[in-house]
């Protein structure tokens, strides 16, 4: 486990609120800059903080989207996730938690929030994000063959991944 990372018993998942956005975007920016600099070179394409903040605010206002944050024992935001219909929209964790098991815990917690009648899940992952692709494949996700483009410059290719839901029967 990374030095200073919180332990699994200290994680809590709760619905995201607008007041979370500044801290959440800080977490997302740190992870994106560290983990996606090959896809979004920061000298040419710095993290679009204002656009990302606006997108989160729009998603929080959308009743079809369920968004969550993971907090540590002190209430600090360690990760985030969102879903809509049969789609995982976002999953991310703070870099200081990488290697701690938080991402897998968050993935499983998010999957457990899907309605029982959802049988197939989907998500989009950047083609150049090998770390995320390996992570999702380890969790049973597979490319569907569909592709798209990121809404953020330089508009890299995104790949659709799918998997059976295995959603929790007890809700």
TrEMBL record:
Signal peptide: none
SUPFAM superfamilies the UniProt entry points to: Acyl-CoA N-acyltransferases (Nat)
Protein name: GNAT family N-acetyltransferase
Organism field: Blastococcus goldschmidtiae
Domain of life, source organism: Bacteria
One of the Pfam families matching this protein, by short name: Acetyltransf_1
The N-acetyltransferase domain, residue ranges: 11-166
């Amino acid at each position: 486990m990374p030095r200073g990372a919180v332990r699994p018993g200290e994680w809590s998942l709760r619905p995201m609120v607008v007041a979370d956005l500044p801290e959440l975007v800080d977490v997302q920016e740190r992870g994106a800059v560290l983990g996606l600099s090959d896809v979004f070179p920061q000298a040419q394409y710095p993290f679009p903080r204002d656009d990302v903040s606006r997108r989160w605010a729009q998603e929080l206002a959308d009743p079809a989207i369920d968004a969550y944050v993971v907090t540590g024992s002190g209430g600090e935001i360690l990760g985030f996730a969102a879903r809509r219909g049969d789609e995982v929209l976002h999953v991310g964790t703070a870099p200081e938690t990488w290697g701690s098991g938080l991402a897998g815990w968050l993935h499983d917690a998010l999957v457990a929030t899907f309605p029982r009648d959802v049988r197939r899940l989907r998500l989009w992952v950047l083609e150049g994000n090998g770390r995320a692709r390996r992570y999702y494949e380890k969790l049973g996700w597979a490319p569907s063959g569909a592709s798209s483009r990121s809404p953020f410059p330089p508009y890299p290719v995104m790949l659709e991944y799918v998997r059976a839901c295995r959603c929790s029967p007890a809700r």
